[in-house]
Amino acid sequence: DRLADIVLTPIVGTLPPGSSLVFIRPGEAFSFYLNVAFIGGMLLAAPFVMYQVRGFIAPGLYANEKKFLVPFVVLTSAGSLSGALFSQYLLFPGLMKFYGAFNSPRMRFMPGVEETVELYMKMMIGMIVVFQIPTVVFFLAKMRLLTARFLWRHFKYAILIIFIVAALLTPDGSPWNQTVVAAPMIGLYLLSIGLAWIVAPKRGQETSNGSDSTRLRLAFVGCRDSGVTMEPLSQRFTVAVVQAAPVAFDRERTLGKVHVLAGEAARRGARLVLFPEAFVSAYPRGLDFGAIVGARSDEGREDFRRYWESSVDIPGPAMDALGGDARANAIYLVVGVVERDGGTLYCSVVFFAPDGTYLGKHRKIMPTASERLIWGFGDGSTMPVFETPLGKIGAVICWENYLPLMRAAMYAKGVEIYCAPTADPRDSWIASMRHIAVEGRCFVLSSNQFNRRSDFPADYRSPFGDDPKTVVTRGGSCIVDPFGNFLAGPDMEGEAILIADIDRAQIIRGKFDLDVVGHYARPDIFQLHVDERPKQPVTLHDAHGTAEASRPGTRTGMQPRASPGDAHDGFTGVSHVSQFA
Fold this sequence. Notes:
This protein is of the alpha/beta class. It has 16 helices and 21 strands. It has helices at 2-12, 28-57, 63-66, 69-100, 113-130, 133-142, 148-153, 155-169, 175-199, 251-267, 298-309, 317-329, 371-374, 404-412, 427-440, 505-511; strands at 217-219, 236-243, 272-274, 291-292, 295-296, 332-341, 344-352, 358-363, 385-388, 391-395, 417-421, 443-447, 450-452, 471-474, 477-480, 486-491, 496-503, 528-531, 539-541, 547-549, 574-577.
């Protein structure tokens, strides 16, 4: 009865003197009490329900995401209460007064219980939902997915959408009713613009990412300018190297992790984000695939089948997802994937532009030791260096970096952002990264996984045992400048996102005394010829003599952008045989 009085008091107060609600069907009054009990219970239980939702989703969140749970519960509860109170004491009585204004001796206003309660509930639930707008904007602004400027620029479209929603919420087509419902939504939208401006990180503001059991940390180096724009030849910008574990042999969940980590790096100002070798979806360290000289086991064949199932088609849905991540965060995204082409797997790196465009791929040309059992060999047609507003970006995978001639080819293409995704956690690898940075006078970004036994399936047969805490790969990711100085890392403590500032002017300063494919080369003595033509095991000729490769290295429908510089490079001592030759 108390809840019913709370509902009825503002309603009856809007009726003409002597009027009251009426019901003509036996069940109407009973249904009214049920609806009142439902709304009251929903409002009273909202904080508890949100707390239970928090407990349900918290185990699946990263440490930096968990800190938003309490504000989420508080803001959603406050929004629900505010919307309910607004509907109860302002919106709904106003509508009833509007309807009651048509009362006359010829038309007496005697609203029925069922229709009135239906309108009451529609207004109540609608306002509870509408009053969540500031909460949604708060978190989107915190994640840098929305800005006050974006909201203001799209204000006219917001007005249109708001009136469409108002038309859906109002019981008739009255413009007055729609305006009454739309007015608070417009106010909330304007409030959200101010809120987005307040909570958005300001330029130069430094934030940290709390660490806990997930060990996700951010390494900040130098003063970051998050306002770098995508203009030609940006001199200063921020890059990020992700050190994390994939969800081994689970492509979809690993793609979900890429989505989260790429977004996290972008929110810290990164314009380019690099992921480790074979991140999607596993580097199968310690797995022998049941192979010995002269025999392969059935269990090992099943291991390979599982690995093949979790690999990536180019083109394919996984590539669409990665392109979407690049576009959503406006970043250059470089990711190590296990690519499948027919029955063969390749260790590849794929490149995406900030608009989500697929730029191309690099297939590892020399798998190391047992990797040759599970991965095929790339050829010279996938050794790209992409010219971008951030500089020339290329990738050399793991121990390919110990091929001096391959490094020379990359230097000849003018690589400036030298990506080196790897699975090598040794100290010698870190020394190699410093050497390459100095030798090529380029910025070297090296990304390795950090994983434990618990990051692999329970039936994973390896020499690492079954202790879930056993470290399988210790990381060692780093960012090095053209003089061999560490800008970030090396990190061997856990999962991390390493972030550093890049100053491209350092490249030219370094070239002053060392340009190994320019003034420091001796082409009169040493020369390198690089064949970049694709090599196919089978070429079919039709009746007209036209040749067609049966399995092209880059499938139709997702052709990469061609690398610049296919011609002879002057006196560098390096020449390229183009794939179009």
